[in-house]
Amino acid sequence: MVPALTAVDVSWSVADKQILSGVSFNLMPGKMLGLIGPNGAGKSSLLRCLYRYIHPDAGNICLYGTDIFSRPLKMFAREVAVVLQEIPPQADVSVWQLVSTGLTPYKRLFERDSAEDNSAIAAALVQVGLGDKADAALQHLSGGEKQRALIARAIVQKPKLLLLDEPTNHLDIRYQIQILELVKSLGVTVIASIHDLNLASAMCDELLLLNQGEVVAVGAVENVLTEQRLSEVFGVCCEIIRHPQTAKPLIHYFYGYSPIMAGSNGVAQRQMGNAYAHK
Ligand SMILES: Nc1ncnc2c1ncn2[C@@H]1O[C@H](COP(=O)(O)OP(=O)(O)OP(=O)(O)O)[C@@H](O)[C@H]1O
């Protein structure tokens, strides 16, 4: 089976600063990949390369075996949906109008939405819990509601690949879980940057851990999330157990620990004084 997405040795620098270095990974169709890593690791930059906002200096990115930069723009706009943290410039439109723009790549100039289109928009709004906000002005929605409206727009686009930059950023815990479960249930290939490592562990099939623009680890969640890596990359002390429901890695963080006091195994050790005695 051809991977939905293949990145080979993707590198990008700006103003002599290397932002991404030799990033490579494969993602099979229907899988959900979580991009994790500390602030400034390069997660957004990598996503920008994947949706063609940035042209990497080196390397290749292929969607179903074809270089993304060789695909006609309109085809690419149908195939790849992007949900960013920023509110789009059309902030004075209604929620319905925003979601309907997800159909734009399928339309000819001035072509109106069909009854089928309207049903798809209404269904997407219900899916994200905004069924009663269709006529509301986008600018009057809360941050989380705006985020869900953007996801509804991506749903009507019916993409092959859905890219999300911190989709859970403005959401309360209920919607963090609900939106990621919804995204997962769409059956499309998903790549999402996620800061909450436990959420990423629970929801993603695979993880890619970036640090300083380089891939530290990529693959099955349980292979990527190790106590030692989290200590080395994030500078935190933790223990990883199995989630009682999913059996996936569940991280318990400890407080008052310092990565400076790394032990012989490299895992951050308890700092003298203020840590509560756990281990
Ligand atoms: N256009 C740009 N010009 C200069 N520096 C940039 C540009 N884009 C990104 N960077 C730098 O690249 C590095 C990676 O940024 P990026 O936003 O990709 O990281 P991130 O992992 O998404 O961070 P965060 O978790 O904080 O959102 C940062 O140091 C950032 O300042």
Describe this structure in words.
This protein has 279 residues and is an alpha/beta fold. The protein folds into two domains: 5-220, P-loop containing nucleotide triphosphate hydrolases (Rossmann fold, 3-Layer(aba) Sandwich), CATH 3.40.50; 226-279, no CATH class. It has nine helices and 14 strands. A six-stranded mixed beta sheet has the order 6-7-8-3-9-10, with helices on both faces. Strands 2-1-4-5 form a four-stranded antiparallel beta sheet, with helices on one face. Helix 4 crosses helix 5 (143-157). It is globular, with a radius of gyration of 20 Å. Residues 270-279 have low confidence and may be disordered. The protein binds adenosine-5'-triphosphate (ATP). Adenosine-5'-triphosphate binds at residues 14-15, 19, 37, 39-45.
List the helices and strands and how they pair.
Layout: E1 5-14, E2 17-27, E3 32-36, H1 43-50, E4 58-63, E5 66-67, H2 73-79, E6 80-83, H3 95-100, H4 115-127, H5 143-157, E7 161-165, H6 173-185, E8 189-193, H7 197-203, E9 206-211, E10 214-220, H8 221-224, H9 227-234, E11 238-242, E12 249-253, E13 257-258, E14 269-270
Parallel strand pairs: 3-8, 3-9, 6-7, 7-8
Antiparallel strand pairs: 1-2, 1-4, 4-5, 9-10, 11-12, 13-14
Helix pairs in contact: 4-5
Bound molecules: adenosine-5'-triphosphate.
